[in-house]
Every structure is written in structure tokens, then in C-alpha cells.
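# step 3/5: fold
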Amino acid sequence: MLDKIYNPELIENKWYEASEKAGVFSCDPNGRIEPYTIMMPPPNVTGSLHMGHALTFTLQDVLIRYFRKMGKDVLWQPGMDHAGIATQMVVERKLADENVNRHDLGREKFIDKVWEWKSESGGTIVHQQRHLGITPDWPRSRFTLDEGLSLAVNKVFVSLYKQNLIYKDKRLVNWDPKLQTAISDLEVEQKEIAGSMWSLRYPLKSDPNKFITVATTRPETMLGDTAVVVNPEDARYTELIGKTVILPLVNREIPIIADSYSDMEKGTGAVKITPAHDFNDFEVGRRHNLELINIFDAHACINDNAPERFRGLDRFKAREIIIEELDSLGLLGEISPNSHSVPHGDRSGVIVEPWLMDQWYVDAKTLAKPAIEAVESGKTRFVPNHWEKTYFEWMRNIQPWCVSRQLWWGHRIPVWYGPDGRAFVEETEEEAQKAADKHYKKSVPLSRDEDVLDTWFSSALWPFSTLGWPQSSIELKKYYPGDVLVTGFDIIFFWVARMMMMSMHFMNGEVPFKDVYIHALVRDEKGQKMSKSKGNVLDPLDLTKKFGSDALRFTLTAMAAQGRDIKLSETKIEGYRNFATKIWNAARFLEFHSLNGKTEKPEIVSTL
């Protein structure tokens, strides 16, 4: 006889364990049944799951259970992502609590600490996923840093390099002085800051009593100026083009050049150019072959390329002193309030610095072309389809993808350098050594590149690396391409676009999935984004313990209408828990009063 009181956790756990033991979650690569594949977006090993995870896992599970019931051979591929920057930050914070930093430990011992964290955090995530009731093929779980996926990463890097689609270049990057690594444009958060606009007077060399006035929000970067730009159509400055000014405080001669980059209607119409510390200035510098002078070190302090009295100063302290000195020399003009966007690292929260350095880049523009065509032709479609516009906008304006990161946790870049700095790009150190010995005609010592790859580089390979690629496995032949990808709009470019590019390039032009379902955001009951600072976060594990996973999943599924965010509250989940209780009571009623008047129990069919 069913219990009088409905206990969702007890019942859900019972049937979950029974179904898993019976092999219900498993696929059959050797069978002949038509496959259905979903690649689970791998959660980061940085702690615990949130409501966004609960929604995406629930929607995937709905599809998986449906097609499993329809008789398909279902593979729901689980796994986790090593999440380079995010995970390293977590571990470094834990070490800081013990007054230890990674440099105290050294690279190898620090990596050991991160693996310890991964073991702890990964176990928590799997526990949460199971508690949520999702049904992937657990024994097939993969990790982006496991041996097989690491081999795939090296294979892809080396192949792209030898196809001239990966290269090293000295360019500006978004440098995070706190995390001490380059970060991508998508990891930069623009914040509106109430700052100032300073007008600076640069004296003409031909007549030091005459000046050209430039306006800037960053006076400290003037130490690296290499030109002043005016618009060629600006009559105010026609006679000055080709002349030079003396850069104040530095006493370096720099040219006045003409370029349409200067806006005649903005400020003074004259712009100081610091090619090593501004992305727009960098492009102007390339057009005019200007010198690139890097004036910051990795901590955003003034380096040895500046006058001695500024060296070692924090960038903002240097700003104060520069303003004071220019004022004392009569070279400081108007100072006006100026509200403007300032780039911050989305994880560190500090102002990022455009910084000139050598990094590894992927020729994303070339790889994007087939991925764009695939969506244009309908080989892959977005649901809702308005997200295609976002996809096209990013892909058609794609820039070189900086894939090197100055971290210790991640896939070490498979590049070794000879005594003269020559690079040997091979899948293993043994192969690199052979190539070097052949080149130098003797055995030479090699040093490996210190950087690791952007975490999105390895997760871009997820649709095929998890199936055994580069080996021609049974799973790869049967379960690639996938049928649908379920994910949030916030990683269309981070992950979806990059999977499209990499998969089509390495899987003979075949798309990684036929449909991309973009689900909504889960917000609080007032429609606000959930955040710890607001105190409005709902923890999926707490909710499943309180109301049962079926109630939470039912709520999320019922509210997940296309194009509409979910306004979630405990009251709504409680309502669906009450609905589940009614079903329980109805089943209990049928069991007690069978329809044919007999006392035999009706069959109770597991939802699993």
C-alpha cells in the first residue's frame, strides 16, 4: 500500500536508482537503433549548480526522456569543464586564506592543489545533478582535461598551426592586472564611470610658444604617445600636418599626422595616439607605421620605458603626478566632468589595461565562413530564430581569437622553443625534440611555452572529442552530429559559435548539431536577475530537498515559454508540489478502491 503522506525525495531516489541500475540511461553504440544525441553543456568545476543549470538540464532531460520512450538509442553525453580562469581564481582565493600564493608553491604543486579542488567540486556537481533527477549516460562522463580530450586539443592546435590558421602575433590584448592574464573581449564588462576629460597642451617644436591641444580621459598614457592625429579635412590644422611636437615630461619628438580617425566635431579635433595602450590607436599606429611604446608592466605600474621619476608608480598614482607636473608647466588646459565606459575584468572587477604583448591567435574569420553558411542554409537552426541575428552579427564581425592565457591551470600550449627562440609545434615533446634535432642537426635543449589555452578552445571540441576523436570510434560514427543543443543566449559566441567553427573544420564540414534551442533566463519573482548581493538567489538543491525534484522540474518546464524569462518563486514550486501530491493521492485511491472491485494493486509506472 502506498504511504499516506507523499515523500518526493524518498520516491524519486528509489525510482532513479532502480532505473539507473536497469541501464535505462545507457546508450547502445553497437546496436542498430536510430540514435538521438544531446551534448550536455559541461558545467564548470567551480563550486555548485545554480538555477540556470537546473533549467537547461531539465529541458534537455525532457527531450531525452521523450525520445527514449519513442524507442531511439539515446546518448546524453555528460561531463565537466576545467574552466581555466574561474577555477584558478577559486583555488588561489583558498590559498590566500592560508597566506599562500601559487608562486610560493610552484607550478606543479599548485596544479596538484587544483586537481584536489576539482575532485571535491566535481563530486558536488554530480551529486546535485543526480538529485535533480537528470538521466545522462553517467559512465561516459568526460572532463575537458582528461587524457583523451587533451590529446584532441593538442591535435587541433598543431593541425591549425600547420594550416596557418594559428599564429603568434604581437597585438593589444585585454590585460587583467589582478589575474595576470589576457582575457577575451567577452570577459570584459563595461562600467559607466564618472571621470574627467583633461586637455593637454603639446608645444610645437618649431615654435615652443605655440601648442596643439589634445583631450584625454587617461593622461598617464601620454608617456607612451607616438603621434598626434588630426582630420585631413580639418582646416584648423592643415598647416600643422607633417610638423612635430615635443611630448611634455618625456621630451620626445612626435609627428602630427592626418587620419580620418580624428573626429573634427569632438573635443579639440586633435587626438593623442598611444598605439601600445589603446585598441583604436593601435590600428592608427599600424596604418602610419608608428612606434609602439609599452609603458606599463604586468601589474599596470609604469615601466622602464618612461622617465625614471615615474617608474614603479601605479597607473593612477602616475596620473595624479602627471597632472600636477603639467599644471606647474602651464601645459594643463580645461578639466571637464566626463562620464564614460571603462572596461573591467568580469571576474576580477579591476580595470583592464590594453597591453601590447605576444599571444597565440586563431584565424577565426576563416573558420567562421562555413559556420555562417551552415546557419544561412538551414543546416543548423536557432530556436527561437531571432537569435540567428545575434549569431550572424558576431560571426560576420569576428576578430582574431586570442587563445593563449597566462595561467597555470589548463591545457599547456604544445609549443617548444629552441636555443635561438625557434618554435617547434608538435603534439608531444618527443615529436618536438625530433623536429628540433633535425633542424639544428644535433640534440638541443627545448623549453615549453609557459601559457595555457583559453578554456573555450577545448570546450569548442566537445561535440566530437567526447566521442573519441581523433580516433574513428563507433560512438563518433553513430552519435555525431548531435540532434539538439540546449543552452543560454549568453554563450552563443563563447561556446556555440566556436563549436560550429571547430566541428565543421575537423568533421568534414558536418555541423555539430541540427538545432540550437536558446532558453530564457531564470529570474526572481519580481523579474530581477538573481545575485548573492541582492539576496534573491534560489538554490536548486535546497528547493529539491524542500519540494522534490519533480516539482521544481515541472515548474521550470511549465514556465519555459520561448522568448520569455522565468519569474520563479517558492510559491509556484509549492503549487506544482501540491499537484504531484494530488497525483499521489489519486494513485493511492485507485490502489485502495480498484476500478474492478478487486483489491489487487494497479500498476504504478515509474516516470523514469
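# step 4/5: annotate
The two ends are 21 Å apart (CA to CA).
# step 5/5: archive (pending)
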